[in-house]
Amino acid sequence: MNDTKEAWIEELLKGDGAGGKMTEKQSRIVESAIEVFAEKGYAASSTSEIAQRAGVAEGTIFRHYKTKKDLLLAIVAPAMTKLIAPFVLRGFNKVLDSEYDSYDQVLRAMIENRIEFLQKNRNILKILLQEIPFHPEMQERFQRDVLGIVLERLQRIVAKFQGQGRMAELPSSTVVRLSISAIMGYIAVRTVYGEREDAVWDDEREREETIRFVMRGLGLA
Amino acid sequence: MNDTKEAWIEELLKGDGAGGKMTEKQSRIVESAIEVFAEKGYAASSTSEIAQRAGVAEGTIFRHYKTKKDLLLAIVAPAMTKLIAPFVLRGFNKVLDSEYDSYDQVLRAMIENRIEFLQKNRNILKILLQEIPFHPEMQERFQRDVLGIVLERLQRIVAKFQGQGRMAELPSSTVVRLSISAIMGYIAVRTVYGEREDAVWDDEREREETIRFVMRGLGLA
Amino acid sequence: MNDTKEAWIEELLKGDGAGGKMTEKQSRIVESAIEVFAEKGYAASSTSEIAQRAGVAEGTIFRHYKTKKDLLLAIVAPAMTKLIAPFVLRGFNKVLDSEYDSYDQVLRAMIENRIEFLQKNRNILKILLQEIPFHPEMQERFQRDVLGIVLERLQRIVAKFQGQGRMAELPSSTVVRLSISAIMGYIAVRTVYGEREDAVWDDEREREETIRFVMRGLGLA
Amino acid sequence: MNDTKEAWIEELLKGDGAGGKMTEKQSRIVESAIEVFAEKGYAASSTSEIAQRAGVAEGTIFRHYKTKKDLLLAIVAPAMTKLIAPFVLRGFNKVLDSEYDSYDQVLRAMIENRIEFLQKNRNILKILLQEIPFHPEMQERFQRDVLGIVLERLQRIVAKFQGQGRMAELPSSTVVRLSISAIMGYIAVRTVYGEREDAVWDDEREREETIRFVMRGLGLA
DNA sequence: TATGAATGAGTCTTCATTCAT
DNA sequence: AATGAATGAAGACTCATTCAT
């Protein structure tokens, strides 16, 4: 359940989907686009501003991406892939068998892993979140390639723990939902409040309480 | 904790912020705007399409709303007010004192009340959700008038139950967060899956399991 | 076989296809478009230049014509209609019966009538001629609505004269072709040379010789 | 009055105006340009499409032709030269003296010779026809190098026949005009209808009737 | 010689907004 | 109050042309 951890954006910037290497200008275009899209939203972003921030001519953008939407997809598509990376790693089955003795370890790992990911890819994820409702192709792909895979894997993990002990009375999909809700609620609040200087947010404690809450809620503690 | 329950949109349509009554054309403009904004997003919506759907001339919109953004705010601002309506009702203090004997009743009431609200105001809430990140004034107002008030009220409720019994070891803000996470997770999944014909979503059961999960998680059951 | 003779462009400028009246600005747009298209060709004309010459904002063009091509069609389509006007006049059958005793009268009438038309509509016809090869819809319409009708009428006239006397040995379509070739050759040269100050072009004589040539060529004189 | 008959395009492709040989890429550029220009018109053609069809890089075109217009002229200029080739052949004077005993032989030769030429060079002639009206230099050159020469030669031929017999009453320029009109009308219709499978176009007969028509029209038969 | 990334002026088109009626 | 013609700034995108490699 570990990610590659290095900033995969760099990878994204080094190679396009076709495997070719990106020129330096192309990288700057993608970086600027991520910035501007995240800041103003896709529809309200102008290619001219992206070009300006990237320090290239507007035409240069269209040499690399036929349309503005292609540029969006070039950003969002690999993000989806990376989003599920930890769940499709070749070692994943081993995880199922051995790595975690207790469900709270699974929860802790998920939190740590995805928090790191979120921090590194905040802008891209913001774009993803904002644009999915307006682009059916993105929706479909997200449903199929992200939700589908992740939920299936998580349900298998849950099923394994259910086989060993309690929480048998709940469908595994329900367990997954309740677990994810708690984690996402924790991450969301942490994202908003956890970075303020004046914050009274004891991250260590909040995380542990969240995990304990889920464990108790599922009858595991 | 009860809402007015009737479609308050009608109210919105009958009176503008200044207390005046809306003409029929103005109502049609607002209705169309809600539709179009929800469908395409604010930035990608054109006033001309809104006018067309409303069956009015392009200029008419600007007779009632100085700018496109004013039209957005005229939709979104009352939505915020209504969003917190149940928490600011004059009878709210009584709620604190008497209405609910047990925390699971609070949870159940929140779920029922807000689900109904969501169903009636899906489009408006979609707009709210989508646009808040891009409009600082909306953000600020949401923070102050919605989050601030709702959280404060909820924390007072929680504090009351904490005073009476267990879950003392958790800060009330944490309790609120965990409760809301679970509820929103339930509502979100329900919104997506709960309406499919082929769905294997037993709404009654999922809701009760969610409530039981929270109660157990908080050490109340 | 007489045309309405007044400058039908004015009609074109007064009413759009739907029968509505044109505003003054719209008229100026069409006029300028005719000028510019004739001068530079459709593809090399820019809407911004058309707007400038018309003294309107560029956006105004697109209020009246959804696309640049629509503007072209709005010019070209009525031209086709007018091009065949003399052949579809209600009185046309009478023409067949009575008006012309001898084929040379037909030729003379065609020349006079179409020369006048050409002079008044030079630019539009230039556009028609230039653009037809690149727009299949225009081609099709021209084939069907112009060529088809005109040739059929002319063949009927020719057939009538064939029934009365000689030139029986030629198919009527061949007679029509030969007649039109001669007339168009005359008109073409006249158009180029006939207007030069230094020209040694005796119009009256050239026309009569052309008619006589055709008559003799068909064995009628 | 005989042409070289082989596809002179190959010559065009082998040598540029300066007498140098063309590389294979340059040939492919010219070929593609002819195709694209003929298909879409000069103004609507893009150098990038030409490059693509030719299988060369965009920049390569500009290594051989400084501008897009230069490329056009490199195609059109030699076409004009070839167009008049039969009239400037060194043996032309002999033609005047001997080759043709009767004017109908002249007409027949012109038809055969130019039809062949047209078939081989349809695209280039289409370009010529389409672009001449928009390029004054081309116009001027056409007027001077093509029309001027051809008409003068034809008038000399006509004058010779006039000296021998009848048609004395017409100016030789008029005779040329009438002859060419008939021939071009024949070729035009043939070009359009003569290739349809379902056509009722008896080419042999139409050609002979056309010649007979001219001869009779000129009082020669 | 050939390449193809880069350019930036220019294209058609859209859009929020104004204003005379 | 309502209209809708008019605006012009801005948008996405194209294209002939240049130039470092």
Describe, in plain words, how this protein is organized in 3D.
The structure is a homotetramer of 221-residue chains. By secondary structure, the first copy, chain A, is mainly alpha-helical. Chain A has one domain (8-217): Orthogonal Bundle (Tetracycline Repressor, domain 2). Helix content of chain A is 73%, strand content 0%. Chain A is elongated and about 60 Å long. The two termini of chain A are 23 Å apart. Chain A binds chain B through residues 40-41, 43-44, 126, 130, 133-134, 170, 174, 177-178, 180-182, 184-186, 189, 206, 209-210, 213-214, 216-219, and chain B through 40-41, 43-44, 126, 130, 133-134, 170, 174, 177-178, 180-182, 184-186, 189, 206, 209-210, 213-214, 216-219. The structure holds a DNA duplex (21 and 21 nucleotides). Chains A, B, C, D: Residues 23-83 form the HTH tetR-type domain. Chains A, B, C, D: It comes from Paenibacillus glycinis.
Structural descriptors:
homotetramer, 221 residues, mainly alpha, Tetracycline Repressor, domain 2, 12 helices, 0% strand, DNA-binding
CATH superfamily of chain A: Tetracycline Repressor, domain 2
Overall pLDDT confidence of chain A: 86
Largest sheet of chain A: none
Order of helices and strands of chain A: HHHHHHHHHHHH
Shape of chain A: elongated
Question: Span between N and C termini of chain A?
Answer: 23 Å
**Judging by the overall fold, what is the CATH architecture of chain A?**
Orthogonal Bundle
Q: Strand-residue fraction of chain A?
A: under 5%
* CATH fold group of chain A: Tetracycline Repressor, domain 2
Oligomeric state: homotetramer
H/I helix tally of chain A: 12
Question: Low-confidence spans of chain A: pLDDT under 50, at least 5 residues?
Answer: 1-7
Helix content of chain A: over 70%
Task: Give the number of DSSP strands of chain A.
Answer: 0
Q: Structural class per helix/strand content of chain A?
A: mainly alpha
Largest interface: A-B, 28 and 28 residues
CATH class membership of chain A:
Mainly Alpha
C-alpha Rg of chain A (nearest Å): 20 Å
The total domain count of chain A is 1
